[in-house]
């Protein structure tokens, strides 16, 4: 019987790979499988302000329900007041509360900056 392929005695043998670990250390500790608060997938913002429409304004939804079309920050705040969130001005810039979709936050039309209502350059 050829003993060239016999398994080494693990009590005194060094691992062949310097990064290898003994078999009993391959099990991962339970705490590595638990997600911490910073690893959790964030919940979507309860307020979504859709992309600016070509005719102006942005559709606002609150918890998935349409609240209307806003043409200004005051409109968004009014929709939120009607939904039971008084003094909502402070929430407009908080991404945990408001998701400004496909456009710059707090803008309500598709006219590029520096242009008038019909696209002409101002100045």
Characterise the protein shown here.
The protein has 123 residues and is mostly beta strands. The chain is built from one helix and four strands; from the N terminus they run βββαβ. The chain has a four-stranded mixed beta sheet, with helices on one face.
In which order are the strands of the major sheet placed? Answer: 3-2-1-4
Radius of gyration: 29 Å
| pLDDT averaged over residues | 74
* Biggest beta-sheet profile: 4 strands, mixed
Residues in helices, as a percent range: under 10%
Distance between the termini: 95 Å
Percent strand equals 5-15%
Summarize this structure briefly.
With about 120 residues, this protein is mainly beta.
Characteristics:
123 residues, 4-stranded mixed beta sheet, globular, disordered C terminus
Helix-strand layout with pairing:
Elements: E1 47-49, E2 58-62, E3 65-70, H1 73-82, E4 98-100
Parallel strand pairs: 1-4
Antiparallel strand pairs: 1-2, 2-3
């Amino acid at each position: 019987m050829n003993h060239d392929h016999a398994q080494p005695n693990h009590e005194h043998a060094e691992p062949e790979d310097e990064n290898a670990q003994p078999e009993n250390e391959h099990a991962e500790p339970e705490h590595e499988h638990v997600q911490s608060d910073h690893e959790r997938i964030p919940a979507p913002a309860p307020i979504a302000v859709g992309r600016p429409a070509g005719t102006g304004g942005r559709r606002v939804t609150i918890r998935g329900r349409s609240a209307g079309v806003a043409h200004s920050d005051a409109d968004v705040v009014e929709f939120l007041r009607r939904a039971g969130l008084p003094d909502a001005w402070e929430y407009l810039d908080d991404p945990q509360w408001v998701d400004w979709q496909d456009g710059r936050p707090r803008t309500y039309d598709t006219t590029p900056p520096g242009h008038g209502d019909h696209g002409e350059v101002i100045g």
